[in-house]
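It is worth pausing here to work through a concrete case rather than discussing structure prediction in the abstract. The textbook approach is simple: state the sequence, then state the predicted structure, then interpret. We follow exactly that order.
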Amino acid sequence: MPKLLFLDTETTGNEKKDYLCQIAYSIEGARKMALFKPPLTIPPGASAVHHITNKMVAEKPPFQFSFEYDELKKLLHDEDVIFVAHNALFDIGMLEKEGLKVPRFICTLRIARHLDPEEKIESYRLQFLRYLLDIDIEAAAHDALGDVLVLEKLFERLHKKMVENAGGSEELAILEMMDISSRPVLIKTFKFGKHNGKKVEEVAKIDRGYLEWLLAQKLEKEEDDEDWIYTLKYYLGKL
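Step two, the predicted structure:
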């Protein structure tokens, strides 16, 4: 098995202008968490989610001048290390903004979607999956270290299922998880909005204008939503 680097960030927001203000990661059982002073003021809306305030980070170093930055840079350059995160593209984007490249990764959100081809699961958010799968662990939600603890357990569940699907081969399972994580997922069912519960393919036939509108909204937003953009373009015949 390769060395798995589980990581989560808390940030000033979820747009391209935002930066991380907390990071937690674990590798081979060793866990670390630290706060950093971002180049932006942490807005009240973000603090309401993760409870990190500007006062808490006032005396902290910028991420790029921290021990954690240097350690992560070394780990990510190690060919034996695979980065693991939930909705990995978001955390990767935050790290790349700071100058850290992530060459190999597994996204547990995309793996969860892959293992639910009939889309029976209501939500693929980390904390929803935590309680759906009855992951019994002491971990605070919307806290970087708490999310890493849940992420580790969620990965165990997903990896076990992928190994079964790979005929018992852990190596093949990891390779497939990386492959699945590297490409957009085709979403089949709406779980929000006026077409909640309907198949996207069906909506493309009866309300194409809605898909056009939603695609425009996704493209205008600064936050990454690669899976939905890919899905909408697919059903609109724009790929």
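Step three, interpretation. The chain has a mean pLDDT of 94. The first strand starts at residue 3 and ends at 11.
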